[in-house]
Amino acid sequence: MSIESFSPLPLNVFSTWVTLLDPSDVPVGMSPSLADVDFFPGGVRTRPGLVSQFTPLGGAPSVNGLKTYITTNLVQRLLVFDSIGNLYKEISPGVLSLAFAGATRPNVYLASATHFGREYMAFGDGTVGLDLPRQYDDTSLDRVSQIGPAEGPSVANGPGGSIVAGVHQCVVVFVTRQGYWTAPSPPVSWTTPGGFTVSLTNIPTGPSNVVQRLLAFTASGGASFYHVPATMVINDNTTTSLTVDFTDTILLSGTSMDYLFSRIELPEQLGVIDYAERLFWWGERAQMDNWRNLGFDGGWDASGNGRPLGWQRDPSFGPGGGRSTTQSVWGDAYQLTADGVTAARGYITQSAITDANGNPLCAKNTDYSIRARVMRSAALAGGTLRISAFSPTAGQIGSGLAISISQATGEFQEFVADLFPAQGSLPPDLVLRVFTDGTPTPAGEYFLVDSIEIFETNAAQNASLVRCSGSEEPEAYDGVTGIMSIAENNGQGIRAAFKLRNNLYFVKERSMYVTATDGVNEPALWQVEEVSNKVGTPSPHGVALGEEWAIIAGRSGVYLFDGSEPVKISQEIQPTWDQINWQYGQTLWVQVDTQRKRVYIGAPMGSATQPNQILMLDYSEGFGDPLVAMLTAPERSRKWAPWTIAANSCGLIERSSGVAQIFFGSNNASGKVYAPITDVFTDDGAAINSFYSTAFLAATAGALSGRNLFGYLTAYVQGTGSLALSAITPGSSGSITLGNWTLVSPATRDMEQFTNLLAERISFQLGTNAPGSWFSLTKLTPWAKPDPFAIVRGGN
User: Virtual CA dihedral for 506, 509, 510, 515, nearest 10 degrees?
Assistant: First the structure.
């Protein structure tokens, strides 16, 4: 075939994927269909392949969290969190070590922040927190904040001393290895005639992370508590008795401890961020915080009878209850051990009407529910664990929680049940009780219960609440000055937060708000303003920061935000964006690689319930709208491409070489952490199906229309393997095979191919699909002319 009468249709621009337009209307220089390609100035090529970076994690889990953690010694440490609940750390380049097995419940996702030399971690399902907030200091994994002693010590007058006559009170405070001072115990009081010391016994001891205990006292007839460091510190977690002497003058010159009484234990959270030397948490599950020792970390009866402090032990059925320090959600748990004979074991109660300070607990006309984490020993063959509300005069109120041996397993599971429905009145002797019945058997086997939570059934989560720590006190939280409410009545939950130019932004599902420290007040008094009532994200990982801007992935699209109005940058792929399974939009994630100038968005496409595709946005030539830039410089705009990579997490991870590397956490049951590596062209050994389709081209441009004869094709393309060529006509569900080119790199000449295609318009597709094959395309020239025999068909 002679091509003397054919005209070239040179393509020197290979730009973005466009699905907003009909494929036949996609402008020249853009693509109606492509996959697994990467862009570079002037061309398009096969994307980098995935290389496993570590030995696969055991148990075939998904990788649900990746984060660089900076230790107090400024060592950059990769943390890897899997779907089993295991936490790993990189102990040397390329080597992961199991830091904590079963650190959390399974199938939760990690969101965390590095600050104060620790990693602060939240765990949730993408919509609400589902496990205790944790902190990791490269050695210990502890919860963030915890309860103090659930009871005070026993007090009595001792031998001669200096204590002033009158009524005094005493409390105990736990001090953790992180230096956190807990809320004090309930006060105990005694009366002294003066001239005595005070003898303290049964001083509470705490979980294994407690390294000190502090004592605080009131002056004669006083209500404020003071601590004298020289004489009121117990530098261990074992001593249970001490004699203390003080004068009121010395005491009142000590440290005031009253502020500790407002401290609460931080509930489960979805996300965390550091700002203004504080931590901010959101997405919490609601729980009542004035019950006594529901997590069993507030100490135990010093007599050794197995009674957790704050609870009462039943004289008949209390035996069998005891402390477990080796099997717990965190800290201590309550173990109920069978003897094979007694009908009920480990029976303990506490008031459901008033707390330790006499304040109301349960109220009438309110429905209450209960959560608890429960497990059992392998050989337990009979019995049921029960947690319920009971009145000695009125009997059991509501159904409560009942866990049989067939429901419990050898791992902690969370169970949720209605504690009791709304009541017109509550018996004044109503108690919360925990016990096993049904004659648990055999002897020595047991149930374990931990992390009991009581909450109002109709308020199971605080979706708009932000918990703020004290300044430079990352574990100090109270229920007044440390609370922010973000548009609490707009029916949306807080999903993410980010910092930009000294401002702190909170992103709800479909709206966004900003606040900033005023340098004077606590966060509860900071001003909060609306930024957008349309733009938000469904995911705690739906926002990522770039160079003084943020990317926000929401239900309506992807937005660029630099502090002014959010700008949509995904309109050209809107039909694709709409194919995300938004029922599972909470699993979506966003990451920015500022060095390579790419945005990665992992999303569950179609019917997927976890991210099964990455939408890659190349912004190396700007964020400009390609459908606008086509009129001037189509190459100077953003470029989208879908990457067939399934990953539950993504992190920009600092490496020992000083380079930040994108890592993907797999969800294909391989337990692998991958990195995209330039010049590798397989995905862990599997082929990459990489292709690029041109816009639909025609020689009869401008005012003309009709059929065209495409006779020839040339291209400057290099690579390895075989490049498949095909042609597609508008509306066709199939393609026309044109042949294959054998690729070399570097290429020394253009490739050529006779085509002999007759159609109104043609899209040419080029791609590789074999392990190790790849292509890089910078020029493509079809040769065409109007059909010399019949430029129009003359009919349909």
Answer: -10
